[in-house]
Structures are given as structure tokens and as C-alpha cells.
Amino acid sequence: MDKDSTVMNGRIGATLAGPGFRNAAATLDAALALGGAVASVRLGSGRDSVFMAAIAARLDAEPGLKVLVIAPGDRDVAGLKAAFDATGGKVGLSCSTIGRDGQAGDSSATIGSLDAVASCAAAGSLDPRAFGLVALSDLDSMADVANAAMLRHALGPASSKRRLVAFSSELTPAYRSIARDLGGAVTELELEAEGERAKNVPTATYSVSAEDKPRLMLGLLASGVAKPVVVFCDLRDTAEVAAKQLRSRGIRTEYVLGNLPRKRAVLDSVKAGEYDVLILTDEGASGLPGSWASVLVNWDLPLEGEPYLARLDHLDVTIEGARVYNFACDRYSYGLPAIERVLGTRLQPVQAPASLMVAESSGRAENSGRNEISARTEGNGRAGRDSTTKPQLDRGTDRNRPEDRRDRGGHGNDRSGDRGDRGGQYD
User: Fold this and answer.
1) 73 contacts 150 by C-beta, under 8 angstroms
2) Buried b (16+ CB within 10 A) or exposed e, 73-95
3) Which candidate, 275, 344, 290, places its Cα nearest to that of 322?
4) Percent of the residues in the chain that have a pLDDT greater than 90, as a whole number
5) Number of domain units in the chain
6) Does residue 223 share a domain with residue 249?
7) Which of 45, 230, 316, 362 gets the highest tally of CB atoms within 10 A of its CB?
8) Which own/partner pairs from 115-123 qualify as long-range (CB within 8 Å, at least 24 positions apart)?
9) CA of 99: how far to CAs of 70, 78, 178, 230, in Å?
């Protein structure tokens, strides 16, 4: 193989988890075959693996090439070495690490922290000019004034004999300047694994009681959120009751609770605009295609992180206004730490705005409902005051009565009425 080869060794690609990571590594490898590259990345847990797989692919394609990998700190070196061993090791490549007082071994790839590289370069035990490719694993952590000066001093100016590759979370003017100073002309890339963009969509997490979830849901729908909306509940009973509550307010709602053979047809009817809301359990969502909903509502938060990520697959992040809303009640807020770990970010629960809490009697936001009641009271005296009495929101507690069996997925004897009254899809 040679420098012009842009086909990544399949044995290296096979070490990466999923086609998204493999595609990202192959894209980076192809760019490095032509010159330097700086990439803004959203690769989640696969970031180091993609970075080192592309480097291993270049070493495999260009015998005699030497690579210097610079990490922000000593703690990052071990993770990068493990990633290289897992990828480059499949094709017989090895790497060595350096400390502040140590020397690089006789390997194609050498990994060291910025401090270690700068110390060894200053002591003369490491010659950065001997490396044809310099790789900065986290430019974000090396772009402050002090670290950038250390990089420039240790590596010297850009050279036609040296390429540069760098990962960062974004490409700012300062980052571009560092890349040009160290590597000359570089190609700018955006690398994103499938599903990573969904982790970064606008998300609101509201602290709300279980009893107030229907009011908050109605408020969100009344606020003009994009449709269709997918709502996830942890339990079948919860999903059924939630669907009944939304239907009682005139919201076109369908639900799937289990592995119903025709649930794909149900989803198609939602996508066609026959329904505004589809309520799912995790079991009901299993096997359905993703990327169709404009808004995702976690009526119940899962207690583990992986189901949360699986739910995100149903959100079409390319739709303008795509958002996630989490209802964090006392029972399910215990899942927040596990969810935050897989997302790599904090979800900060806040109290739901009063403007989104729909009054139980009117189906309107609380403020507008109070204004209307006040006007009636002033105009009608005692009768107006009597009109302020609010009927209780139907919470589905009477759903086991015989006359209500039509609401349980059409299992009752009376099958008259429209499909919306019977609705609900079971396995």
C-alpha cells in the first residue's frame, strides 16, 4: 500500500463498533492520504478509537511513516494507547509511550502528553522533525495561550515534510490558527457518528409530579410544538391512561404497548398525519424504524441510560424545532445519573413554567384560564364565582368499569363508535 491509498484496511475498520465509527475513521484516513486535517467531532465514546484507527490505517498504508500523538495530559495517554493497540494491533502495528524523562521506543507511533513531549524536545531526547504526522487528540484542551505557545515551541513551524491531524469539539478561528502554524494547509472535516447529533438536540427536563404530567403535556401541545410527537412511558398501564387523558381533550392520539404485528402500519398512519401523538412503551417501540418524530417526550424517564439512547433514535433531528422534553417525577428521576453518563452531559431539572401548565377545566394555559374566570366573576356575580369550580381531570382511575372497556383497545363487546374511541394497539 502507499500514501495515495484511500481504502482503509478492513481489519482495522472491523475493530470499530458500528458503521458510523467506521465511516468516520475511513473519512479521516482518506483526508490524511492527501494532507493534514483538522476535524470537529461528535463521536461520543468512540472518539479515541476513531482517531487511533485512522492513524493506524495511515501507518498500514505508508510503511516507514512515523507518528507522534500528543495528548492533553498523562491520564489521556493510557486510553489512547489502548485504542491504538485495539486497532493497529490487528495489523501488527505497535506504539510506545514517553514520560517527561523517558525516550520514545522504536515504534511507528509514539504517544505522550503535551508536557512530556515539550520536556523531551527541550532536553533533546525527542526530535519532532523525525515524525511525518503529528496528531493532537484534543485541541480544545491545548488551545489556551500557554499550551499553544508550548506546542509551537516544541514542534516548530509547519513543514512540507509534516502533516497534522487534530480533533476538537468545534473549529474556532484560534484553533484554525494553531493548525495552520503547526501543519500548514489542512482540510477541515466534521465527523459525527450516527445518533450523536440526537444527544445534542435542545432538551428541557422539567420537575413535575406524576399527577401534573397530563397538564404539562397538554401545555406543550398547545404551545405549538412540531408534530408528530412520540411519547414514551415505562409501563403499559401508564401509556394507556395517558392516551385516554389526551384523547379526552381532543388530541389525536394512538398508542402501541407491545409487539403487535401491525404496529408498523400504526406508525405509518401517524407519519401520514392521521394522529398527532404516538405513545409507546420501550417494548412497543422495538422494531420500529427511527428518525420520524419532531418532538420526543419522556413521560417517564427510564432508569438506565441505554433505553434513553434507544428512544432518541425515533427523533428526526433534521426537522426544524426538533426537541426532547423529559418529565422528571419523584419515581423516575432516579434514572437521571445513568442517563447523564451515557449522554456525557448534565440534565438540569427545572420547575415547569406556569405558562405550560394547562388548567384542568379549560384545556388552556393556567394564566389565560384565570383571566377568563376573573372576567366571568366580575360580570356575573355569584354565578360567575360558581363557574370557577374546576372539574377533576379524568386520570383514568375508572378505566376498569364495564362501560369504559371500549377505551381498552377495543376489547369490550361494544365495537361501535370511531377508531379513535376504541384505539390502542396491544400485542
Assistant:
1) no
2) eeebbebbbebbebbbebeebeb
3) 290
4) 65
5) 2
6) yes
7) 230
8) 115/73, 115/74, 115/150, 116/74, 117/68, 117/70, 117/154, 118/150, 118/151, 118/153, 118/154, 121/154, 121/155, 122/154
9) 12, 12, 24, 52
At a CB cut-off of 8 Å and minimum separation 6, what does 177 contact?
Answer: none
Position 109 scores a pLDDT of 95
Q: Are residues 146 and 205 in the same domain?
A: no
Tell whether 154 and 204 lie within a shared domain: no
Which of 174, 194, 214 terminates a domain? The answer is 194
- pTM (2 d.p.): 0.56
Q: Which three cell numbers stand for residue 229?
A: 410527537
Q: Which domain holds residue 52?
A: 10-194
- Among 293, 279, 246, smallest CA distance to 395 is for 246
Q: List, edge to edge, every strand of the sheet that includes 277-280.
A: 253-256, 277-280, 229-232, 295-298, 323-328, 203-207, 350-351
Cell for 193?
457518528
Residue 295, SS3? strand
Point out the domain boundary residue: 177, 194, 211: 194
Assess if residue 427 is contained within a domain.
no
Residues 14 and 51 in one domain: yes
Q: Is the bond leading into 228 cis (omega within 30 degrees of zero)?
A: yes
Residue 63 in contact with residue 106, Cβ under 8 Å?
no
Backbone angles phi, psi at 152, to 5 degrees: -60, -40
- Scanning the structure block, which residue is given the C-alpha cell 463498533? 17
Query: How far apart are alpha carbons 110 and 104 in whole angstroms?
Result: 6
Q: Is residue 3 part of a domain?
A: no
Domain match, 169 and 203 both: no
CB 93, CB 57: distance < 8 Å: no
Please tell me the total number of residues recorded for the chain in this structure.
427
Asked whether residue 303 is domain-assigned, the answer is yes
Confidence band of 105 (pLDDT split at 50, 70, 90): low
Amino acid 8 reads: M
Q: What CATH code is carried by the domain that includes residue 124?
A: 3.40.50.300
CA 122 to each of CA 88, 107, 115, 117, 125: distance values in angstroms, whole numbers, following the listed order: 30, 21, 11, 8, 8
pLDDT tens track for 203-242: 999 999 999 999 999 999 999 999 999 999 999 999 999 9
Q: Are residues 67 and 51 part of one domain?
A: yes
Residues 183 and 311 in one domain: no
Do 118 and 202 lie in one domain? The reply is no
Distance CA 145, CA 288 (A): 50
- Note whether residue 72 is domain-resident: yes
